[in-house]
Amino acid sequence: MKEVDKMRYDFDSYLNRRETGSSKWLNMDSRNPNVDRDVVPMSVADMDFLTCTEINEEICNYVNSQTLGYSKPVDSYLQTVVDFFREHHNYSAEKDWIVTTPGIVSALATSVNAFTEIGDEVIIFTPVYHPFYEVIEGQKRVIKECPLIYNNNAYSINFELLEKLASSSKVKMILFCNPHNPGGIVWSKEELIRIEEIAVKYDLLIVSDEIHSDIVFKGKKHMVFGSISETIGERCVVCTAASKTFNIAGLQCSNIFIKNEDLRNEFVTANVNIGLERANILGMVATKAAYEKGLNWLDEVKTIIEKNNNIVEKFFNSYNNLFKVMKPEASFLTWVNFENLEIEHEEFMKFLDIKCEFFVNDGLSFGENGKYFIRINTGLPTKKLEENLERLKKYLKECYNVISK
Question: Cβ of 32: how many Cβ atoms within 10 Å?
């Protein structure tokens, strides 16, 4: 990775995003209407860095030279996506496996709709990204939680429980987060193979959300679930997007790899039946530009995020085990346990919002076993991150006499 002081791109500047309807900024204002106007929130998982200039240029070129009518993914777009995954993830896919959608959450919902029936059961590993719960329960399917084992400030999969759950004839699917959100875990090949073995044994479909797979640290290697074997490739829906990696989520474009033709046709039909079509045209323009021209930006943003992650880790570790930081192996999200503070959950979250103006995600939104956690988005200029942490430090001392070493 590049040295921070030799950056080609600007990761120090940021924009006030209230007037654009940013979910993250509006959520901050709703939680504390009196928040200082210079505070940058660290909750919803998009980044507050300026967009990659090459992506901006391609969007402008398209808008200035084309109309914005109904558009489908063209061959050159699909080839770019296939090439990116072959080169960066060693995933040998075909263009006709790709179904574009407006987002991964909609693809998760479509998968539950298309491949299960009302009353069927779906396994999820908790804590996990909250839409996993919503797309199952909202379609009258039944959640079967397989809680991750939390030990030595790390998560592992309870394979004994997974197999027990999978053996039920009512279970039809596993919704999987790879890498894991909120834990930032890059699952190993051995873990994926074990899940595959259980899925094949009990005839389960795997739907794998891999939106956080491009920003990976510490020599870890992401493995696309569908690449584990030919067998799992035929019973796997791999959900991908450039949206987190290049901070273009507002353009609503995801690429869903479905190798099995019958499953792919069922997926497309389920979308057609609810009037959900292809991805946004500008999203496809931006994704193509990102994969072809944005790799230098990606290299640099990974450097900044890793720097920010280290700052967060050092900050919380200075509190003598009152906080436990699960250092992320992927993405710009850091999972922090505050149980040893012995402050009630609701009190602490209110303290963060109102007193500290330190806006993060409440771990409870990821499931009951996330109750004494917060998820911190480190995708913001380092200076603004440090300002947020300094306010937290000040008020921990002032309100609770909690002092760093």
Answer: 17
Q: For residue 341, which of 364, 368, 371, 312 has the smallest C-alpha distance? A: 371
Q: Which two tokens stand for residue 146?
A: 């397989």
> What pLDDT was estimated at residue 1?
54
The pLDDT of residue 3: 63
pLDDT tens string 150-185: 999 999 999 999 999 999 999 999 999 999 999 999
CA distance 207 to 194: 15
- Local structure of 336: helix, strand or coil: strand
Residue with structure tokens 């290049």? 246
Which residues, in sequence order, are bridge partners of residue 123? Answer: 144, 174
Angle between helix axes 189-201 and 159-166 (nearest 10 degrees) is: 20
Candidates 312, 290, 286, 282; CA nearest to 377 is 312
Hey, which residues does 171 pair with through a beta bridge? 121
- Residue 375 three-state SS: strand
Place of tokens 């394979």: 159
- Per-residue tokens: 385: 């991150």
Structure tokens at 387: 């300002």
> Do strands 236-240 and 254-258 pair parallel, antiparallel, or not at all (unpaired)?
antiparallel
CA distances from 89 to 150, 163, 291, 296, 352 (A): 28, 28, 13, 17, 38
Residue 144: strand pairing partners: 123
Sign of CA dihedral 345, 347, 348, 353: positive
What does the alpha-carbon distance between residue 11 and residue 380 come to, in Å, rounded to a whole number? 8
Asked if 358 contacts 392 with a C-beta cutoff of 8 angstroms, the reply is yes
Give 283's contacts (C-beta < 8 A, 6+ positions apart).
Answer: 102, 243, 248, 251, 252, 253
Whether the link from the prior residue into 381 is cis, omega within 30° of 0, is: no
DSSP lists the bridge partners of residue 150 as 155
- Long-range CB pairs of 153-161 (<8 Å, 24+ gap) are 153/324, 153/325, 153/326, 153/337, 154/185, 154/326, 155/180, 155/183, 155/185, 155/326, 157/125, 157/191, 157/194, 157/195, 159/194, 159/198
* Burial readout 55-85 (b: 16 or more C-beta within 10 A, e: otherwise): beebbeebeeeeeeeebebeeebbebbbebb
Ranges under pLDDT 70 in the chain = 1-5
Residue with the two structure tokens 């980044």: 47
CB 110 within 8 A of CB 270: yes
